[in-house]
Amino acid sequence: MSTAMRRIPQDGILSSVVVTAGAATAGYGAVLDTTDLECNNAGANAGTVIGVHLDTAAAAAKARIQISGVAAVKVAAGGATRGTLAAVAAAGFQDIPAPNTAGATTTYCYGRFVQTGVSGDVVGLNLDCAGGTVITA
User: Rg of the chain over CA atoms, in angstroms?
Assistant: First the structure.
């Protein structure tokens, strides 16, 4: 049996994905769960984020996930600065911490902010600039 994705994303959006644990929150990082068609909210610095939830939905409901382009994301406590790389946080996305070559913490990069905002704001995040890691702390 093939393990390939059973639904092909259209226009950078993966649709009709079932929310499994807790809820999906619009503007938060999205991670796939047990199958290609199950998702939930990402935790802080999750290395498996595939995109951004477009919908707020309870467990067992369906949601959409944006996987490319510029997404509207919720700004977490660390704030968002236009032009800065973004990290996922428990309550959205925030500026990635400054690199620290002596550090031991890997922080995952999920795009580059195209707007500046403070905690609770909704700003644009270019998902097509995602990928890579930065050693911090």
Answer: 15
In the chain, the amino acid numbered 34 is: T
pLDDT of 6-18, one tens digit each?
Answer: 555 667 888 888 9
**Residues in contact with 11: Cβ distance below 8 Å, sequence separation at least 6, in sequence order:** none
Question: d(Cα 38, Cα 91) in Å, to the nearest integer?
Answer: 20
If DSSP codes are grouped into helix, strand and coil, which group holds residue 30?
strand
Look up residue 119 and give its two tokens. 């905690």
The DSSP secondary structure of 31-68, one letter per residue, reads: EE-SSTTEEEE--TT-TTEEEEE-S-EETTSEEEEE-S
| pTM, two decimal places | 0.84
| Tokens 């639904």 sit on residue | 7
Grouping H, G, I as helix, E, B as strand and the rest as coil, residue 49 is: strand
Residue 22: count other Cβ atoms within 10 Å of its Cβ. 10
Match 């890997």 to its residue by tokens: 106
Residues of the chain with pLDDT under 50: 1-3, 5
- For residues 26 and 53, the answer to whether their CB atoms sit within 8 Å is yes
Spatial separation of the C-alpha atoms in residues 73 and 81, rounded to whole Å? 13
